[in-house]
């Protein structure tokens, strides 16, 4: 489900992060959501259709509008730049219904949240829920320098670690002092998530208490050809295009939800492969790497790829 | 016709598997006499766990001497199974995430220990179980809620309400008990002959 909403506020909150607010053009209520949910923002940028997922940062129970915070990625594919440079209040944008792949586990006794930089965003909506539930929480935010601290509703109880000031996060200590029943949530760069999850596992935290979210942008790569057996078409995927985008451009229907390698919706069977799949997703089990591909983020390099689309 | 149940389908019955050493900040091992052998095997595979381990032995036995030789950080012995919940809660009071639990022994010991651990907040992913010894089950009567320890025959007579109860695989993780239901509800008085529970 997608609705066309009006951009009503655009406000810089740090040198690279801007807050955007969207409302229904006729003032109607929007569906409420749950903490940690994201929306897919579709942008018509000239000839290019861009779709980026952003975490909602507003109160999940507030149906008067949706707010997101977007960091400008100059090396990115252009979605965040479009929002920073071209999107202006009054503009209408397609905003998908909220989807949550990073919800709070409500059986947790305590919520331990670890954010790196703009990775604070999913926690901002979760915090509304945590406060409403009177659930104990601990929030750590790691940033490089003080001026990166975004002017967003970060609670006073948050522990801010600024690497420029030498106040780095002591992960081992944080992970060693949590009461039984604590669930850990981490959102930030791939490297940070990997670091936190590896340390937690080494310290005996079971997988069912660990949650992470990283939105992957499809990595660019070498153009490649793909045969779509069911539609009987052969496509070329461009260097800066994802396989999913190429399928859509060719009118081949492929389900999707997160477009970031996390939700599993676009999972596609491989029928023939002579070459190497570059798997970039967080979804497939390594045992499935020979038989499936996630077209939203993964690519191919080799002589022949035939997929069941 | 054989009906095969795919592994992905939720199974009500708890599954047990040989204990495997996992990385952890601390370990809590719980065993009865038969289960002690499983702890000895685990210690042989991962002796480095022992200095971080608290071992709780239920119904002290000859095996305790061998367990003591493993030199765990702490060894707690309790006499009767009825002391298990209180003893466990005491050990868990100061526990932190990073604790991995290893439980070995009779079905009913495992089920009761798992329920106490989960109530204390330990996630299921941090609990391993290996059945050694008796398949005796903890049963809850769904009618009068009486819990009967050590049920070894099916059906059995509920000591709470005297109904004959059918021993099913429907398991309550919250209670750590199987759910027994009246076996002759449709045919009052016609109770099948009791059979030994074999697994």
TrEMBL record, chain A:
<dbReference type="Pfam" id="PF00970">
    <property type="entry name" value="FAD_binding_6"/>
</dbReference>
<keyword id="KW-0408">Iron</keyword>
<dbReference type="InterPro" id="IPR036010">
    <property type="entry name" value="2Fe-2S_ferredoxin-like_sf"/>
</dbReference>
<keyword id="KW-0479">Metal-binding</keyword>
<keyword id="KW-0285">Flavoprotein</keyword>
<dbReference type="InterPro" id="IPR006058">
    <property type="entry name" value="2Fe2S_fd_BS"/>
</dbReference>
<keyword id="KW-0001">2Fe-2S</keyword>
<keyword id="KW-0288">FMN</keyword>
<keyword id="KW-0560">Oxidoreductase</keyword>
<protein>
    <submittedName>
        <fullName>PDR/VanB family oxidoreductase</fullName>
        <ecNumber>1.-.-.-</ecNumber>
    </submittedName>
</protein>
<keyword id="KW-0411">Iron-sulfur</keyword>
<dbReference type="InterPro" id="IPR017938">
    <property type="entry name" value="Riboflavin_synthase-like_b-brl"/>
</dbReference>
<dbReference type="InterPro" id="IPR012675">
    <property type="entry name" value="Beta-grasp_dom_sf"/>
</dbReference>
<dbReference type="InterPro" id="IPR017927">
    <property type="entry name" value="FAD-bd_FR_type"/>
</dbReference>
<feature type="domain" description="2Fe-2S ferredoxin-type">
    <location>
        <begin position="220"/>
        <end position="309"/>
    </location>
</feature>
<dbReference type="Pfam" id="PF22290">
    <property type="entry name" value="DmmA-like_N"/>
</dbReference>
<dbReference type="InterPro" id="IPR008333">
    <property type="entry name" value="Cbr1-like_FAD-bd_dom"/>
</dbReference>
<dbReference type="Pfam" id="PF00111">
    <property type="entry name" value="Fer2"/>
</dbReference>
<dbReference type="GO" id="GO:0016491">
    <property type="term" value="F:oxidoreductase activity"/>
</dbReference>
<feature type="domain" description="FAD-binding FR-type">
    <location>
        <begin position="1"/>
        <end position="105"/>
    </location>
</feature>
<dbReference type="InterPro" id="IPR054582">
    <property type="entry name" value="DmmA-like_N"/>
</dbReference>
<dbReference type="InterPro" id="IPR039261">
    <property type="entry name" value="FNR_nucleotide-bd"/>
</dbReference>
Automatic annotation (TrEMBL), chain B:
<feature type="domain" description="Dimethylamine monooxygenase subunit DmmA-like N-terminal">
    <location>
        <begin position="11"/>
        <end position="124"/>
    </location>
</feature>
<dbReference type="GO" id="GO:0004497">
    <property type="term" value="F:monooxygenase activity"/>
</dbReference>
<dbReference type="InterPro" id="IPR048037">
    <property type="entry name" value="DmmA-like_C"/>
</dbReference>
<keyword id="KW-0408">Iron</keyword>
<keyword id="KW-0285">Flavoprotein</keyword>
<dbReference type="InterPro" id="IPR054582">
    <property type="entry name" value="DmmA-like_N"/>
</dbReference>
<dbReference type="Pfam" id="PF22290">
    <property type="entry name" value="DmmA-like_N"/>
</dbReference>
<protein>
    <submittedName>
        <fullName>Dimethylamine monooxygenase subunit DmmA family protein</fullName>
    </submittedName>
</protein>
<keyword id="KW-0503">Monooxygenase</keyword>
<dbReference type="Pfam" id="PF22289">
    <property type="entry name" value="DmmA-like_C"/>
</dbReference>
<keyword id="KW-0560">Oxidoreductase</keyword>
<keyword id="KW-0001">2Fe-2S</keyword>
<keyword id="KW-0411">Iron-sulfur</keyword>
<keyword id="KW-0479">Metal-binding</keyword>
<feature type="domain" description="Dimethylamine monooxygenase subunit DmmA-like C-terminal">
    <location>
        <begin position="138"/>
        <end position="181"/>
    </location>
</feature>
């Amino acid at each position: 489900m997608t609705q066309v909403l009006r951009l009503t506020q655009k406000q810089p909150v740090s040198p690279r992060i801007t807050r955007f607010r969207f409302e229904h053009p006729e003032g109607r209520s929007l569906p409420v959501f749950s903490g940690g949910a994201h929306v897919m923002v579709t942008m018509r940028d000239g000839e290019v259709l861009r779709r980026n997922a952003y975490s909602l940062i507003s109160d999940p129970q507030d149906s008067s509008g949706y707010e997101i915070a977007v960091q400008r990625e100059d090396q990115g594919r252009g979605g965040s730049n479009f929002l920073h440079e071209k999107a202006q209040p009054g503009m209408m944008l397609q905003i998908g219904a909220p989807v949550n792949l990073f919800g709070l586990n409500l059986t947790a006794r305590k919520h331990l949240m670890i954010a790196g930089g703009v990775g604070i965003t999913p926690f901002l909506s979760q915090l509304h829920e945590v406060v409403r539930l009177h659930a104990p929480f601990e929030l750590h935010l790691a940033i490089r320098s003080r001026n990166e601290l975004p002017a967003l509703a970060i609670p006073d109880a948050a522990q801010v670690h600024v690497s420029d000031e030498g106040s780095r996060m002591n992960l081992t200590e944080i992970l060693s002092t949590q009461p039984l029943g604590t669930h850990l949530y981490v959102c930030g760069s791939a490297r940070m998530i990997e670091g936190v999850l590896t340390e937690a596992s080494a310290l005996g935290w079971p997988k069912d208490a660990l949650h992470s979210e990283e939105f992957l942008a499809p990595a660019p790569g070498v153009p490649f050809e793909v045969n779509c057996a069911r539609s009987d078409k052969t496509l070329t995927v461009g260097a800066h295009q994802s396989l999913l985008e190429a399928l859509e451009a060719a009118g081949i229907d492929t389900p999707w939800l997160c477009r970031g390698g996390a939700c599993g919706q676009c999972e596609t069977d491989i029928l023939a492969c002579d070459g190497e799949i570059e798997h970039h997703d967080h979804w497939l089990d390594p045992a499935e790497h020979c038989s499936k591909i996630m077209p939203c983020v993964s690519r191919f390099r080799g002589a022949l790829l035939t997929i069941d689309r | 016709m054989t009906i095969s149940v795919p592994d992905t389908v939720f199974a009500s019955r708890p599954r047990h598997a040989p204990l495997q050493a996992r990385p952890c900040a601390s370990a809590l091992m719980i065993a009865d006499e038969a289960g002690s052998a499983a702890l000895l095997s685990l210690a042989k595979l991962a002796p480095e766990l022992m200095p971080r381990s608290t071992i709780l032995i239920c119904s002290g036995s000859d095996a305790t001497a061998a367990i003591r030789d493993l030199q765990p950080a702490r060894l707690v012995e309790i006499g009767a199974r009825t002391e298990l919940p209180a003893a466990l809660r005491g050990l868990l009071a100061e526990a932190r995430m990073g604790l991995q639990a290893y439980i070995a022994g009779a079905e009913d010991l495992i089920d009761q220990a798992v329920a106490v651990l989960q109530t204390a907040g330990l996630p299921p992913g941090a609990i391993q179980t290996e059945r050694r010894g008796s398949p005796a089950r903890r049963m809850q009567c769904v009618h009068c809620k009486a819990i009967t320890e050590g049920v070894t025959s099916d059906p059995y007579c509920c000591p709470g309400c005297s109904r004959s109860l059918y021993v099913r695989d429907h398991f309550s993780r919250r209670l750590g008990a199987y759910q027994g239901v009246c076996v002759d509800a449709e045919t009052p008085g016609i109770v099948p002959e009791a059979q030994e529970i074999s697994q």
